[in-house]
Design brief:
GO terms for molecular function: cyclin-dependent protein serine/threonine kinase regulator activity. Keywords: Cyclin. It comes from Vannella robusta. It holds the Pfam family Cyclin_C. The chain is an all-alpha fold. About 60% of the residues lie in helices and about 0% in strands. It contains eleven helices and two strands; from the N terminus they run H-H-H-H-H-H-E-H-H-E-H-H-H. The chain has a two-stranded antiparallel sheet. Helix 2 crosses helix 3 and helix 8 crosses helix 10. The protein starts with about 30 loop residues before the first helix and ends with a helix.
Length: about 260
């Protein structure tokens, strides 16, 4: 089933799966896509919703734009609508008023007048886009995120600081959301890649009792490298990744290490 690897709108499900990226997704828009997803992540944290809610909202966003281009639909409105929708789907509801106020404060660095025209515009725009997202997704809200699978795999590994390994792996998954990886690859493959990148970054031994680490990752190195390069390329678009300790030197070293092994 094509849905095992790539989410596509139902009317597109019979098409060839030879390409993992829907034709509607323009690679030249990677930077703007990354920026809006990063803002949704920040906004969700300010509104204190769980990371799963934030992740779901960004997955909804990517799924929606499998069908439309950024020129055809206002990506900002869609992004906020996806966050608002995800908060209800994931049972961590946020008030639309709070969403608009926090969004405006972060974007404009000022307060929005609750009974003003601009507030009314954003309220109507987000509600309209929410309905559009609902119909575009076909009311299909099932998402398997990589987090649980990643945590399960980390528990099977022997590492001097498993909590730190899990945290860095978690951060790489968060960063991956700023790309279209969630609609290209199985979440288990993204989970394995996040662990691989975390191990490479931490530069500490990681073993498996009575086996090999590849047995736990259960993902081909070819796939891991493809996903890794997309995540690492993301850092070329921005000043720094979510890993606060990560430097350009570390990033390039990680790329070099992967190139040597491939």
């Amino acid at each position: 089933c094509i849905f095992c690897l790539l989410w596509v709108p139902r009317e597109m499900s019979s098409s060839s799966s030879s390409s993992r990226i829907p034709a509607s997704i323009d690679p030249s828009k990677d930077r703007v896509r990354s920026e809006i997803c990063a803002f949704v992540q920040k906004l969700g944290m300010i509104l204190k919703v769980p990371q799963i809610t934030i992740a779901s909202s960004i997955v909804f966003f990517h799924r929606f734009f499998c069908k439309y281009t950024f020129e055809e639909r206002n990506m900002e409105s869609v992004a906020y609508a996806c966050l608002f929708l995800a908060s209800k789907i994931e049972e961590s509801p946020i008030r639309l008023k709070d969403l608009i106020e926090q969004m405006y404060r972060e974007k404009k660095k000022t307060k929005i007048i609750a009974d003003g025209k601009e507030f009314a515009y954003w309220r109507n725009e987000i509600l309209e886009k929410e309905r559009h997202v609902l119909h575009t997704l076909g009311f299909d809200f099932q998402i398997e995120h990589p987090y649980a699978n990643m945590l399960s795999k980390v528990k099977q590994l022997q590492h001097e600081d498993p909590k730190r390994l899990a945290q860095f792996s978690w951060n790489f998954i968060n960063d991956s959301l700023r790309t279209t990886l969630c609609i290209q690859y199985d979440p288990k493959e993204i989970a394995s890649t996040s662990i691989y990148l975390a191990i490479k970054y931490l530069k500490t031994p990681c073993t498996v009792k009575g086996g090999d680490i590849t047995d736990v990752l259960a993902c081909s190195m070819e796939t891991i490298e493809k996903i890794s390069h997309q995540i690492l390329d993301l850092y070329d678009q921005t000043a720094k990744p979510n890993q606060s300790e990560k430097t350009e030197k570390n990033k390039e070293q990680t790329k070099t290490e992967m190139a040597v092994e491939s």
